[in-house]
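Obj.: predict assembly geometry.
Materials: sequence records (below).
Method: joint structure prediction, all chains together.
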Amino acid sequence: MAITAIKGFNDILPAESGRWQHIEQAARRVFELNGFSEIRVPIMEKTDLFCRSIGDATDIVEKEMYSFVDKGENSVTLRPEGTAGVMRAFIEHKLYAQDPVAKLYYLGPMFRYERPQKGRYRQFHQIGAEITGVHDPLADAQVLNMLVQFFREIGLDEPQLQVNSLGCPECRPAYRAALIEFLEKRVDALCEDCRRRLSTNPLRALDCKVPGCIEATAGAPSVLDSLCTGCDEHFSGVKRYLELTGTSYSINPRMVRGLDYYTRTTFEMVTTLLGSQSAVAAGGRYDGLISQLGGPAIPGIGFAMGVERVALLLGEKAFTRPPDLFMATLGSGERAFAFNLMHKLLQKGIRVEMDYEGKSLKSQMRRADKLGARYCAVIGESEVASGRAVFKRMADGGQVEAAMEVSEVLEILS
RNA sequence: GUGGCCAUGGUGAAGCGGUUAACACUUACGACUGUGACUCGUACAUUCGAGGGUUCAAUCCCCUCUGGCCACCCCA
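Observations (raw structure tokens):
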């Protein structure tokens, strides 16, 4: 048996890479339009970075990280998400000293040791963006609007924006306590998982799909009712700005996030088309993260989207670049002639293809058709002698005779 | 970590105890010795994930292993 890829690690084959590029290019275009700059950070970090940011007790840190001890006996980890590394770089290079307001985006692979399933892989890719240094809900709204714009740009209007506020270290503990108290009274009605969640992550119980739990938690207290004044005003601001710009959203007070560093605003772009992997993009505010990592007390907000999930939503649509011209040749002398012409045309940015190994004319024509070439020219002895050839429009068979000169070919293709 | 389903060629797949292992797509070549698409012809799995077992006989039955998918958990 030949060696295969690691479980949960996928190859992006040529048939799919066009779709990936389409997604990545749209993200770069939209993000840069919004004033974001790319930041490239390593895919491995010291393990401690993730423990301190994501949270020691989260599933990600507890059981999903690809961690190992390197030859220098340092514990290192393949990044399970992007924000921690970006903020580490932000602090390490003191980017805040120049300007506390940074708008950064990144893209690349992330790693989580989970059981693979639809839309979930051990190596997966995220495109994310972060704004630091702005407390005002305008930053929240800008990030959300940009995310929505991205989805519109790639032609997906299906994912819906849901927002919530998780409060801050001031008001969240009280809510958590109230929720636990509420759930404990109904513990008999809860499923096994939710009983466990009671002690690990009570918020999760609100998100449970078991009918009995949905019923039992129907009257549970809402985070939004227990926000402190500051958080409440902030959340109102976010909603107000979204409404101002006509961005449609819904409020989901039961939305739960998996990372400990989130404060106040959290959000998801959700879809019903991906089975249980409903979140295509998600994020939130993390006002305490930067100082937690040893930086100044600077707030932040950002999101990450799962490229595999976006690609899945885009479906099978092909993103290919058919050649402008295919040159079919009849002998080795003609092949050399065509090769030289191809070289000149390529310098001009014309997409040209030809046969490399003396296939029959029929084969070459078939290939021109298969590649979706706009034009095909047959080059034989007489064409080389006269310097002129017939250019056939593959779509309708129309033919144009012209000199095999760069300028004339450009003319035909224009 | 838990559960369910499934493993036949490059792909989608039929076959379910003895077959030349269907059919379709793809690919290659050809049907005008210089023109694609449509049509037609020819070729393309000594072999049915791996290893054992049952049987005169196994792709079809049994066991083990490996792999994949989907769901739970969790998450982008």
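Conclusions so far: The CA atoms of residues 227 and 307 of chain A lie 33 Å apart.
To do: check interface contacts against the pulldown list.
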